[in-house]
Amino acid sequence: MKKITVVLSILLLCLLAGTMASPRKASARVSISKTRRQCSTYQKARKHMKRISFKVWDIKGRKKVTKTKTILIHKAIAKKVKKAFQAIYRGKEKFPIHTVGGFEWRGSNQSLHSLGLAVDINPDENYMVDRGKVMAGRLWKPGKNPYSIPKRGIVAKKMKKYGMKQCLWGKRKDYMHFSVGGY
Ligand SMILES: [Zn+2]
C-alpha cells in the first residue's frame, strides 16, 4: 500500500511539474551561456543584433521635449526592450533620457553589452560604484537630478516588467545598467 502511494505521488508531482513548465515561457527565456557561444567575436555578435528606435523625453530649458533614440540590442529581447522604453515614454513622470546604450563589444567574456543583453540609461547621472569607488559615470542623485533613476520609479518598474533586471547586488551598484541576467 505504501509503495502505491509513493508511486502515485511521484506521478502526480511529474504531472504538476509538466503543467508548470509552460513551453511559451521556456522559449522566451534567453540563455546567456548559449548567447556567449554564439557571440564569440564582434562580427558574430553583430549578426544577432537588431536596431530598435523609440521615443524618449528629454529636457530643453524648462520644457520636456520628445527625442528619438536608436540602439542595437540582441534580437531575442529587442521587442521587449522597445516595449519597456515605450512604456517609460508613456508614463506620467515623463522621465528624461538623454543617453542610452545597448550592444557594445567589450570582449566575449566580459559585459552583457557584448552580447546585446544589457542597456545603460543616462550613465553620467547613474554611476557604477564598487565598494564606494566610482567606476563609471559621475553621480547618482535620484530626486535631485532629473536624469538619475529612482529605485522604485517608472524606469526600474518597466524595465523589470519586460525582463531587464537592474544590477544592484552586493557591494557593486550599477544604477545605469539593466540586463537579462542582472549583472
Ligand atoms: Zn551597462
Protein traits:
single chain; 183 residues; alpha+beta; 6-stranded antiparallel β-sheet; two-stranded antiparallel sheet; 6 helices; binds zinc ion
Mind explaining what this structure looks like?
- This protein is of the alpha+beta class.
- It has one domain (29-179).
- 34% of the residues lie in helices and 27% in strands.
- The chain contains six helices and eight strands, in the order ααααββαββββαββ.
- A hairpin with a 2-residue loop joins β1 and β2 (63-74).
- The relative contact order is 0.13.
- Residues 18-27 have low confidence and may be disordered.
Brief characterization of the structure:
This protein is α+β, with helices and mostly antiparallel strands and 183 residues long.
Topology of this protein?
Blueprint (H helix, E strand, L loop, with lengths): L1 H19 L2 H6 L3 H7 L3 H6 L1 E12 L2 E12 H16 L9 E2 L16 E4 L6 E3 L2 E4 L17 H8 L3 E5 L2 E8 L4
Helix pairs in contact: 5-6
Helix count equals 6
Number of strands: 8
Number of domains: 1
Helix fraction by DSSP (H/I, runs of at least 4): 25-40%
Please give the radius of gyration in angstroms.
20 Å
Q: End-to-end span in angstroms? A: 50 Å
Secondary-structure element order, as H and E?
HHHHEEHEEEEHEE
> Are there runs of 5+ residues with pLDDT below 50, and where?
18-27
- What's the main sheet like? 6 strands, antiparallel
Strand content: 25-35%
Average residue-wise pLDDT: 88
* Heteromolecules bound: zinc ion
Helix/strand class = alpha+beta
**Shape by Cα distribution:** globular
